[in-house]
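Model: Ready when you are.
Researcher: Fold this.
Model:
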Amino acid sequence: MNARSGIHVWSLQKRLQEFINADNGVKFQSGGFPVADFKWQIIAYPNGNRFENYGSVMLYLKLLGYPSDLPYGGQVTVNFRIQCRETHSSSTFIETYNRINDSKGWSSRNLLLSDLTKESINKITFQVDVKILKISNQNGRITYEAPLKIYKNRFNLKWIVQDDTIARFQYANNGKWFESGNYSNLWCFKCAPNGYNDKNEGAALLFIQLCALPPNISKMKCKVKLFHVESDTKWSVKKDFGYDNKNAGWTKNKLSYEKLMKYDTITFRAEIEILTLFDLKGDKSVINPQSSANYKYQAKKAYDDGSIAGKNSKFSIKNRGNRSATTTAKSSATKGGNPYGGYGSDNYHLYFNDGYKKYNAQKAAQQKQMQQQRSHESKEDSESENDSEDENGQSSENEEDDDSEIELETFPEMKDQVKFLQKEYKKLHKIVSNLKTKSKSNDKLIAKLQADINALKNGLSLPSTYVTPNNTTSSQSNTTKSASSAASNGGTGGGILDLFGDMGSAPTTTTAQTTQPQKTKPQNNDTFTTNGDDGGFGGWTTF
């Protein structure tokens, strides 16, 4: 293969006005260029490729072809930086391409089309720096990894922002990124002076970005401290860096855009300590200064075929002679052997309980401690950004949706879900039916009540039934009386009649009938009862 890295510069001078006046969805593309025998292309949408990013210049790096030694394709992981030289807009990514025509690029608002019209420029220049980090064939077998060597585990980085960049900080829109150069081919700074989305607009955000990993390493656990020197802003976190988790930075409450721009100079610092390396299997790898004159990070075992080297090899397993405390225990009761008599002994259950249960208890305690530590780390005010998306608008990283969805993978699961929904539908249908029935009944009662009120207003007689006890006997008979209104000659009706104005002066008559002793039952709960023999209404019953 050819060189594993390359730079391509795409200049738009003759088509500058066409670029600036382009409509939404109009695409510009550079010629193809090779890096490590892979063929690449720069894609640009001057006015956005969708309605959502209208007014933003969208840039993407597109994979056009594989090298000849990968006839069936494969995966290529690259570290690339896209930048506009005239406006200093820049974004660095680590992305994996899985097929031809895959495209990855920066998010919207990193470069606005209006920025180009404000600039006094006669051309626009885009530059892409591409470095191949890892190549896998169609079967997932790694055929190449960038030979990055780490000679130390502590890094002190400083980014002194240049004056012309500070001037652009003054007018930075929300979503615009600026970046430093690379440090040890491993790290770089990223700064969004005015935030990178609507949620953190007005906040000066600083991130440290991973640019590569050493061979056979899947992630690094690091302790990171970030500083803005002039304002004495400090922030620290412990975080695992990998190709799926590439950066870390402080949150919006640390440093405001207004406070940052008060200073004539801007200096950022970072202190990074690599605590642990993890190999491709997830096992820990350690720094072993005695194993190499260069003091490089070394793994505990070989990676070529999984075999273990000889006793004197730098890749040999350490502490190989150590064994379980139970299996190597010595006891005065049992000479030179297991105190419980080994597997054939009647005391084997004691061996099991004392050995493995003790081991399991220790392991459980370690896991609990690790979980508590992770929980504590997750509560620290750290933040990761993802300003990358593909050409179709999909984020290049997996993002969790706030709204969970039901995922049904098998037919029985779907069938059970349908049954559950049918039951829920029946319950809801029953509830709705009951509400409708009650509603109709209430409508009837309201209509009857309105009719009674109208009858009272018109001075019509309204029969009502009541029951009064006979105080002179032992309650052997009941008397039912009907009354139509209050006494005449200005007698007041009392109670509800006061609600109807001059109704108390209406001429009325009172009649009474004595019937056989029997108890009468009110009909439909809408009867009126009199209050004594004077014919005055005492009120109506409630429903």
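Researcher: Now this one.
Model:
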Amino acid sequence: EILGYSSHILPIVFQLLDDSAVTVQATSCYVLEMFCERLEPEAVRPLLDPLVRKLAAMLEATNKRSVQEMAVAALAATAVAAEDEFQPYVSGVADLMQKRMALTDESMFSLRGRALECMGHMAIAVGKDAFEPYFVPTMQCALEGLAMDNTDLHEFAYAVFANLAKVMEQEFAPALNELVPHLIQVIGTDEGQLEAVQDTEAETSAFDALDDSDDEDGEGGNYVIQIRTALLEAKKGAITALGEMAAHSGAAFFPFLEESMKVLQNAAKNWHPLIKLEVADALPSLLAPSIAAYDGGEIKWTKGEVNGNNPMSPQTTQVASAVLQQLIELMTDDDKDVVGKACEGAQSVIELCGPHALAPVTKELLTMTHELLNKKAPCQNMDNFAILGDYGGDDDDDHDTFMQAVCDLLGSYPRVMGPQFAQYLPQFLPAVCDWAKSSRPSSDRSMAMGCLSEIAQESGRDVGAHWDSVFLPAVLAGLADPDDNVKRNAAFCAGVCCESLGDSIADKYPQLLQAISPLFSVDISKSEASAACVDNAAAALSRMIMACPNQIPMPQVLPALLKALPLKSDVTENPVVYKCLLGLIQGNHPDLAANKDELKRVLTAATAENSDVLEEIQVQIRPILTSL
């Protein structure tokens, strides 16, 4: 929410960069970094030039390492926020960074690492062509850092390798022979070990009361686990780098695929959730080199088709199977973040590779998803235990963000399986609806409504058997919900259900129209969700008009629809809205004449220079606008 005040806060922070106190300067840089990391280019644009100049001057003027580090971090964040608008500053900032990337004093290694990190962020911001002159020097500095006995520099190097692999793509391939074996070695290193506690009298007396061991000869002893946290972070960075190299280096990475798979499978058994989370994130990337090498860079699969020829090569089929099996195992982890990332990975794999990848693991994957929805998975054991205590599972603070990934995975099943998923709807729909209960937090209700929408959109007429019992009650409750995010998802669900089921639910149109009508009175200035709520209501009306035009009281509906246009937030619904309008125009609908001025306003906005409407739609609109 605080990002909405950036235009008020950033100018004040900008002025504080001139403060004489070092702590104020450093804190101001930190605030700028935090804001800029999350802002869009238009938000940082008014301050971009003076901000870059001010930070660069501060970096040159101060001899305080802490201020220099914060200034470099703020420059990196500014580049990320400005994106390609940062191009005019790349040369000057790169010169400043290269001076600091050459530091050899060990006490200055953290600044050296920050400068290297800044180069990686600039690469992401401005892209391959603009950054190419700095690619080789940045790589050389990172490789030199690997040769030094400093895990912080190693960690910075892995981060820049990940960013440069993403930006330079196939041009990064020559570095694979040197880097991949090193990364595999780091990932395979043990970062923790059990060590015996020294048997001193003080330690014995302190812990005697806790010792109920039968071991009297001292051989059992007391042990503690010693963790090298620096190596843990380095391993995490190495996994990220390996994943990005696999994702973006193309077929050149394929020779390293088998060893990379093995080391990630071993790392998936690591005791630390951060390592397992990175593994879950990296695993789907291993498909990219196989697809590039053996599938022409793309897998063309057909929704629900499992009986025909497998569109995947044997090599990619094998990789997809190994990746999915490992991700399913990670879905049984006791850490929710790991489980959420594993669900995201499974979704990306089946949507990339299609039904033939999903078919061998359908039972395992659907069973695990069902357990998660019903809060019976290992990572939810403590949730179930808490219900036995003084508080239940329906408190406002009980929303688990990882469940969004679970619901997204569920929504991908009908997208991939098509009609084959219909047989599972009776098991999954009640589980989803439990999350939409009025006692659940608004975030849960919105999530569940969105999940029902995806299922409805991808299942088509298969949802007809569950319209009266599940979808209609859920939609009506969602449209009456006090939360705008729930309302917008309910409006979308209503629209796609009408689109799929057509005349078969025409008798419910009056009820649906009455429930959707209040959404057009939502104050769009309140929030982005409020604006999207009106947009989704307009899209729902458009779908209903196209599905059953005879059931729509157009003299009342058309003015409300036109007044809500152009869309303010959810511009992905533009094709639906303008398809509806163009259909009415081409059919010479009689109610258009009475709304000619509003129609002209809407079509003029759609073809304006800054319009979000696709050019292919604008091409159809322009001749109509001329005739008006």
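Researcher: Key takeaway?
Model: The longest helix spans residues 229-248.
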